[in-house]
TrEMBL record, chain C:
This is Na+/H+ antiporter subunit C. Its main location: membrane. Keywords: Cell membrane, Membrane, Transmembrane, Transmembrane helix. PANTHER family: ANTIPORTER SUBUNIT MNHC2-RELATED. It is found in: Cell membrane. Pfam families: Oxidored_q2. Gene3D superfamilies: 1.10.287.3510. It comes from the Bacteria. The keyword Zinc does not apply. InterPro entries: CPA3_antiporter_subunitC, NUOK/Mnh_C1-like. The chain crosses the membrane at residues 6-25, 32-51, 63-84.
Length: 481, 309, 99
């Protein structure tokens, strides 16, 4: 059996089992499906690394009739990072989302929703069909909204509703663009579109799809729904929502602008996206500075980190390093942000809340998860030797190569701001006053630490991921211009 | 003459849509929306898309309308039924007008492309069905449809997460109190057998003519809803194993059929032409059953009655 | 003007109306209704585009049926959120938009 097929079908099968069976069996089935999906992600990545990227025309029907799936370096990197984050999240959830602790309702719903979310992410990362991508991000959004609401508190329900409205509007705007593409070209396949006869309507289609997907990614000024939604969910759900969910719509955007319709990427449009990215970096960081609950600080930081991903857009057609740099930023953010939310979840369970003053001195009782938070902060601030540093370094190099140094500024500025907003939780954690709390076992504290370590390792051992990414990297368009 | 007919229909659609958005009162907006859905279904017939017309009438107008009416009733019980009048919103008006004008312009600029027509004509005899829309849904773009069947399940799982913890494990939906000699009870006796017939027929003929798992499943869901609202059947408890199995049967059969293709070496979701017809029929029946149950549960909503443990 | 143009422009107008309602309305049930109008207008536009040339193209019809089912799933979850939220707050609007 093909690893790519296992990767797509196993989380779906696990989700179905988790719906059908009673709680105990459901959790076992979900964890078994998760283990198999991690193995499949690694197998797909090794196929890509070996120079044999898998590609399937589903049903044996090649596009434009059927749907093609393909894994390239970008897919493989995201699939493996997603597998790492999901494995950590589900391990953490094995305790906190069990019926005894979370109640029978959450113990029923968490597992199918988490696996559906994972299945949707995998499907989005390998699909080559614009409409299939629509179905994929709808599955992702609905599972994500369910996870935001799962806590059941009034604030969580309001956050889920606001998220839902943005997701609904965003998906229809994206779909409007897809409809224009099909009406003009009779095809939905990214590779067929790359070699299409351009139509005057393509710029409008790209604009609609971009508006819709940026609303789903929570790019400034569509970010208002994100902090309450990500902060209102239980910690393992927050980790998935913040680390992984925005990456799906971002990858579709990246593929649209660099693979499907690169000829429509006008400098003015790219500058606008870049400017919104810079605004998100500033606004998200200031928002994080103003918070006094650590979960909200971490959630606002996601707004800023999403900003980086878009601040790189103006450089994409100009320098090769910008593309790898932005993907490094996305991957290290995923690892670091998931580590942070899982660590915060352990503190909240121990201290009863996430206000900064409630966390004072927790590092003495929980040194490992505090250290995980500190390592993740290194990655988010972009300090060496983390993957976040390497990503920023590549982007800044690209900016100078292209003679557009202005796009290097947000990277540097954002790093300073991140150091500022992450200092307060770190200072509270490592304060020298003993807090006597019941700490979780070392094995459980090791889960966020492993993720945070992954974010650092991405910078230290960057050769393999960089070589992996090189498979299928779209050529830069500068020569055309 | 037919042009005049289309023009009148379009004017009606737009008028009713404007009344839905701008009219006073939430209840009236919902009623206008249902009328709108029926008019659009007529529009689909005029465009030669009978499959879509059936889906729009059954799902777009019918089930969505019931969903909204039920929600309106529940909001009234929570004391939140009143309309919250919206002040005129200039940025929203500009966004709406801008998108409309842009798409209107795009219509005049759209080229007429090569479409997958020839490939489709060539592949249709091997697809196992004669209705090209069904062939696209269940065979050529089966991956979309498989994911979509899981989208329904994701929505239901998310909806069930909105249950109060005190009501978890109870019967889904609002507790029904129907007078045995009332109108609703009469409906509940007459409609279900008739609807059952129509639903099964739509699923059965979907292979060759307009209809199929989604349209048929929706009619079957409506049958279940009417029967439940009339008190003829009691909705199941949220944990009932048999019903949970019904929820996953469709996606599961679809998934297993796809994997069987991969295991036999033909490829994921590849159905050899000799058995495609039988395989698609099995998928269609299982899918229709799951769609019917999922849609009915989606409209009934999460359990609301506090259960005493 | 042909009948197809008529349906396409109707679709475009419905999209604008729906978008207006989705942004401007305060009552959340009205917003969800507007979302459905937007979606249905979009499908009409796509369907009209697919009916150009020689005969209706079945591919957009299949896409539209998928889209209708997805829209219902999303509407059902949104309505559920609305009702659950109203039960706790007594309002059918977002907290920051309460009158």
């Amino acid at each position: 059996m093909n690893a790519l097929v296992v990767l797509l079908t196993l989380p779906l099968g696990g989700a179905l089992a988790a719906v059908a069976f009673p709680a105990g069996v459901a959790r076992g089935a979900a964890l078994a499906a998760a283990a198999g999906t991690v193995a499949a992600a690694l197998a797909v990545a090794s196929e890509v690394a070996a120079g044999a990227p898998p590609r399937i025309a589903l049903g044996g029907w090649p596009p434009p009739l059927g749907i093609a799936l393909a894994a390239d370096g970008l897919s493989a990197a995201l699939l493996v990072t997603t597998a790492a984050v999901m494995a950590a999240v589900l391990l953490a959830a094995r305790h906190t989302m069990a019926a005894g602790l979370a109640g029978p309702r959450i113990a029923f719903g968490f597992w199918p929703l988490a696996l559906m979310l994972w299945a949707a992410l995998n499907a989005v990362f390998v699909s080559r069909d614009l409409f299939n991508l629509y179905v994929g991000i709808e599955l992702l959004s609905l599972a994500a909204v369910g996870l935001v609401a799962i806590g059941g508190k009034p604030e969580a329900l309001a956050a889920a509703m606001r998220y839902m409205l943005f997701a609904l509007a965003g998906s229809l705007l994206y779909l409007a663009g897809v409809a224009l593409i099909y009406a003009a070209h009779g095809a939905l396949d990214i590779d067929l579109l790359a070699s299409r006869r351009p139509s005057g309507t393509d710029a409008l289609a790209l604009a609609l799809m971009t508006a819709g997907l940026t609303a789903k990614t929570a790019l400034f000024p569509f970010h208002v729904w994100l902090p309450p939604a990500h902060a209102g969910a239980p910690a393992p759900a927050s980790a998935m929502l913040s680390a992984l969910v925005p990456k799906a719509s971002f990858v579709i955007l990246l593929r649209l602008w660099t693979e499907a319709l690169p000829d429509e990427a006008s400098p003015a449009a790219l500058t606008l996206i870049g400017a919104l990215g810079v605004a998100a970096v500033v606004w998200g960081s200031l928002g994080a500075l103003a918070q006094s609950r650590v979960k909200l600080i971490v959630a606002y930081s996601t707004v800023a980190q999403i900003g980086y991903l878009f601040a790189v857009f103006p450089l994409l057609p100009l320098a090769q390093a910008a593309w790898s740099g932005v993907i490094f930023l996305a991957l290290s953010h995923a690892l670091a942000k998931a580590a942070m939310f899982l660590a915060v979840g352990q503190w909240m369970a121990a201290a009863g809340g996430d206000r900064l003053e409630e966390l004072r001195g927790l590092a003495q009782a929980m040194p490992m998860s505090a250290f995980a938070f500190a390592l993740a902060a290194v990655t988010l601030a972009g300090l060496p030797p983390s993957g976040g540093f390497l990503g920023k370094y590549m982007v800044m190099t690209a900016a100078f190569t292209a003679g557009q140094w202005v796009w290097a500024l947000p990277m540097a500025l954002g790093g300073l701001l991140a150091a500022a907003y992450l200092y307060r939780p770190l200072a509270a954690l490592f304060a020298r006053e003993g807090a006597s709390v019941a700490a979780p076992s070392r094995a459980r504290q090791a889960v966020p630490l492993a993720l945070a370590g992954g974010g650092i390792a991405l910078g230290l051992a960057s050769a393999e991921p960089l070589a992996l990414l090189a498979n299928g990297q779209p050529p830069i368009q500068a020569v055309v211009r | 003459m037919t042009f005049v007919l289309d023009a009148v229909l379009c004017a009606l659609i737009l008028g009713v849509a404007a009344a839905t958005i701008a009219g006073h009162g939430v209840f009236r907006a919902i009623v206008f929306f249902i009328v709108y859905g029926l008019l659009v279904a007529v529009g689909w017939v005029r465009l030669g898309a009978v499959d879509v017309a059936l889906a729009e009438a059954a799902i777009g107008a019918g089930l969505t309308g019931v969903l909204f009416l039920a929600a309106y009733g529940r909001l009234g019980r929570e004391g939140a039924g009143g309309d919250a009048p919206a002040p005129a919103h200039l940025p929203a008006a500009m966004a709406g007008l801008g998108v409309t004008c842009a798409l209107g312009w795009a219509w005049s600029a759209l080229p007429l492309p090569d479409r997958p027509g020839p490939q489709l004509a060539e592949a249709l005899p091997m697809s196992g069905v004669e209705n090209p829309v069904t062939a696209v849904l269940l065979n050529f773009r089966a991956w979309d449809t498989l994911l979509e069947s899981v989208v329904l399940l994701a929505a239901l799982t998310g909806l069930w997460m909105l249950t109060r913890d005190a009501a978890w494990g109870g019967r889904i939906g609002l507790p029904q109190h129907v007078r045995p000699d009332g109108v609703m009870a009469g409906f509940g006796r007459v409609l279900p057998p008739l609807g059952l017939l129509v639903g099964v027929y739509l699923v059965y003929i979907g292979a060759d003519r307009p209809g199929g798992a989604f349209q048929g499943g929706t009619v079957l869901a409506a049958v279940g809803l009417v029967a439940a609202l009339a008190g003829a059947v009691r909705p199941p408890r949220i944990g009932a194993t048999r019903w949970r199995a019904a929820l996953v049967a469709g996606p599961l059969v679809f998934l297993l059929a796809g994997l069987a293709g991969a295991a036999l070496g033909a490829g994921f979701l590849t159905l050899p032409p000799q058995i495609a017809g039988a395989a698609l029929f099995a998928i269609e029946v299982a899918l229709a059953a799951s769609i019917a149950v999922t849609l009915a549960f989606l409209v009934l909503g999460p359990p609301e009655e506090t259960i005493t443990r | 003007m042909t009948a197809l143009t008529l349906y396409a422009l109707t679709g475009a107008a419905l999209i604008g109306l729906g978008l207006y309602g989705l942004i401007a309305a305060r009552h959340l049930l009205r917003r969800i209704v507007a979302f459905n109008l937007l979606g249905s207008g979009l499908f009409l536009y796509l369907g009209a585009a697919g009916a150009r040339g020689d005969g209706p193209d079945p591919v957009p019809q299949a896409l539209i049926i998928t889209g209708i089912v997805v829209a219902l799933s999303a509407s059902a979850l949104a309505v559920g959120l609305l009702v659950a939220g109203a039960r706790l707050s007594g309002r059918a609007t977002l907290p920051e938009e309460a009158e």
